[in-house]
Amino acid sequence: MSLRLSTVILPYRRWSEGGREAWQRAEQLGFHAAYTYDHLSWRTFRDGPWFGAVPTLTAAAAVTDQVRLGTLVTSPNFRHPVTLAKELISLDDISGGRVTLGIGAGGTGFDATALGQEPWTPRERADRFGEFVALLDRLLTEDSVSYEGDFYAAHEARNIPGCAQRPRLPFAVAATGPRGLRLAAQYGQAWVTTGDPKLYENGTSEQSVQAIRGQVEKLADACAAIGRDAAEVDKVLLTGFTPDRGRPLESLDAFVDFAGRHQELGFTEIVIHWPIPDSDFVAEQKVFEQIAMDAVAQLR
Questions:
Q1: CB 115 within 8 A of CB 41
Q2: DSSP code of 10?
Q3: Tens place of pLDDT for every residue, the chain, 300 residues?
């Protein structure tokens, strides 16, 4: 399968002040998909503008025609499967069946305490994530769902007419641990990684590639354990969190080299951040657009 190139557009700009134009330009540049983060606030953007993911994606659906849209990623930190399912079905309908749900267990950032709760332990996050994904799968494929679990419940939750995509919109499951990888193998049409966070500060590019190779192998083992061919699962790398940081966006050649090394590991989609001045995602817009238009052809 040829490599696909996608982008992630952080929702920090007003729609009337560059927000709309970014999503439209993403489609013009030929990106396979344009994603956004699903957070209430995020890291250094906490004290500045930050808009909701689902309304942003709905607006993007209304001003684009072909580019796929989605979250990277949604988590249980402040979402409930019943209400999320209703929003996703609506978004999938409005977009004409162009939505991918990137979904992960969540972390310990601002989202983890914004509703007044104590941060969950890693074990509790994993427990909740497993129940969240399984219930969301049912809600998006069945007309009526009743369920009583350890963390979530649904009572005759109606989701008619269901997703525009059948049997439901695709899940891209972000995971690196054994329990998350099993969820990706069971429910995911795609799997997402950002690499090994332990290598971000002091690791090398070579160490990162080796760590990601190990993740790919563990995903294959998780698929094999349930009799699934790992080749059926798209493999997505969200860039910007490996030791390479922003270097792959410094030139077309640098990106082709970076993407090629990960394509050899079996990745089918690379996601790059839309440039943001004075941030960790700073990049020259001209170079970014050259990569968008020319890189994939060089990787065939």
A1: no
A2: -
A3: 689 999 999 999 999 999 999 999 999 999 999 999 999 999 999 999 999 999 999 999 999 999 999 999 999 999 999 999 999 999 999 999 999 999 999 998 889 999 999 999 999 999 999 999 999 999 999 999 999 999 999 999 999 999 999 999 999 999 999 999 999 999 999 999 999 999 999 999 999 999 999 999 999 999 999 999 999 999 999 999 999 999 999 999 999 999 999 999 999 999 999 999 999 999 999 999 999 999 999 998
* pTM greater than the 0.90 cutoff: yes
Cα-based distances in Å from 273 to 57, 120, 190, 233, 276: 16, 28, 19, 23, 8
User: What region, left, alpha or beta, does residue 97 occupy, with left being phi > 0 and alpha being psi -120 to 50 degrees?
Assistant: left
Q: Write out the two tokens for 178.
A: 């054994």
Question: Of 55, 73, 51, 52, whose CA–CA distance to 190 is shortest?
Answer: 73
Q: How far is CA 176 from the centre of its chain?
A: 14
- The DSSP H or E segment spanning 154 is strand 153-158
β-partners of residue 172 are 102, 190
